[in-house]
Amino acid sequence: MAKEIKLSATRIDAFLKCKLKYWFNYVDHLPKVPSPAFKLGIAAHESLELAGQIWKEKEKFTKTDKKKIIDKYIEVSVREGIDEMSIHKEGIRLITQRINDFDHGKIIALEKTFGYNDKKSEDITTDEGVRLIGAIDKALEIDEDTLLIVDYKTSKTAPTVYQLKDDIQLSIYDLAACKLWPDYKRIILSLDMLRSDILYTYRTEEERKEFSEYLKVVHDQMASLKKKDAKAHLNIFCPWCDYREYCDEYEKACKKSDYKFLRTAELDNEHLVKEWNDVRSVKKIIEGRERELSMTIMDKIRDSNNILKIDDEKVYIRQNSRVTYDKDTVKKFTSYEEFVKLVNLNKKAVENYIKNNPAIKDKIEATARVNYTAPFLATKKIK
């Protein structure tokens, strides 16, 4: 394969998770299976880029500006083909929420690209000679010495403090920012989790150097990868892989039925954990395949406006229901003591209320109680 490689966070992630996925994407250049979440990300990024451009000019939004930003989201949502209205509406909510609580700093760059072959993009090369490629969503000047790098995320789950500190994409942006804006003494990195909060982190000089050296190792292994070494690695992320339809191992896992389970009492710690990881990966693959088939069957039923008959069975769409009540009406016909017992507080709604009313923060947070779910196993890298 070609030796000239530019590293990005997505390229590194594909290489580390599954060599075959990496080969399909960056060597064979196979078309991806479309993902609604990916389309939402594109629509959110383009509309927030417009928001940034308006804010850079005025440092405020008028009602007309806000409508223009939302209209931009809708335009991109339709263009990208977001066909699930729940996802489309969720995007409108996220963008509306963000433009109502926008930045108050000085925007110095929006969608700042590096490593691309165009006039607007700058070439970024590490001290070890590795070329980088990417796009920084937004760069803000906090003061004359401090730069804030912002990366928008539409994912439903937020990283932990440790994951944030080791996030490869933010580390690449940190290296790029040092070269793009060398006059700033401090660089703060942030993930703007549009569904929740903004998370902040930073990199020390030592961490920066260590990461730069790490990129050199990854780059060299990418450059030396051969087709015969591009093996599939089944893991819990396989059901969401853009290239699962090309993967023979994924297909085998979906069709496999002759599973042989070893006796747990005979397994040492290493093989016990390996068996657990293997079963967990296959479980996710099977569940993902079931969802994929279910969506296809439901589309067929809706398109034909009829049930599907297979031999002596019929397949139809069934839907459970959940009853909700108007809280104002219930409150009107119940006592205060009884009403409190009937109402559940939404954690996110309470946190947003506290954020907008900081004077009552301590009093409300003092009443918070933490309830734990049933324990479950999890994994994380040992540093």
Helix and strand layout, with pairings?
Blueprint: E1 6-7, H1 9-17, H2 19-26, H3 36-58, H4 63-80, H5 85-99, E2 106-114, E3 124-125, E4 131-132, E5 134-143, E6 146-153, H6 161-165, H7 168-180, E7 186-193, E8 198-201, H8 205-224, H9 248-255, H10 269-304, E9 308-310, E10 313-315, H11 327-332, H12 336-342, H13 347-356, H14 361-365
Parallel strand pairs: 1-4, 6-7
Antiparallel strand pairs: 2-5, 3-4, 5-6, 7-8, 9-10
Helix pairs in contact: 1-2, 3-4, 3-5, 4-5
Alpha plus pi helix count: 14
Helix content range:
40-55%
Mean pLDDT across all residues, rounded? 85
**What is the strand content?**
5-15%
Q: Strand tally, please?
A: 10
Categorize the overall geometry.
Answer: globular
- Which segments are poorly predicted (pLDDT under 50) over 5 or more consecutive residues? none
**How would you write the strand order of the largest sheet?**
2-5-6-7-8
Following the backbone from N to C, one meets helices and strands in this order, namely EHHHHHEEEEEHHEEHHHEEHHHH
Distance between the termini: 32 Å
Oligomer classification:
single chain
Alpha carbon gyration radius: 25 Å
General description of the model:
By secondary structure, the chain is α+β, with helices and mostly antiparallel strands. Among the domains are: 34-102, no CATH class; 107-224, no CATH class; 327-365, no CATH class. The chain is built from 14 helices and 10 strands. The chain has helices at 9-17, 19-26, 36-58, 63-80, 85-99, 161-165, 168-180, 205-224, 248-255, 269-304, 327-332, 336-342, 347-356, 361-365, and strands at 6-7, 106-114, 124-125, 131-132, 134-143, 146-153, 186-193, 198-201, 308-310, 313-315. Strands 2-5-6-7-8 form a 5-stranded mixed beta sheet, with helices on both faces. The protein has a 3-stranded mixed beta sheet with strand order 1-4-3. Strand 5 and strand 6 form a beta hairpin. Helix 3 packs antiparallel against helix 4 (63-80). The radius of gyration is 25 Å and the shape is globular. The model has no long low-confidence stretch (mean pLDDT 85).
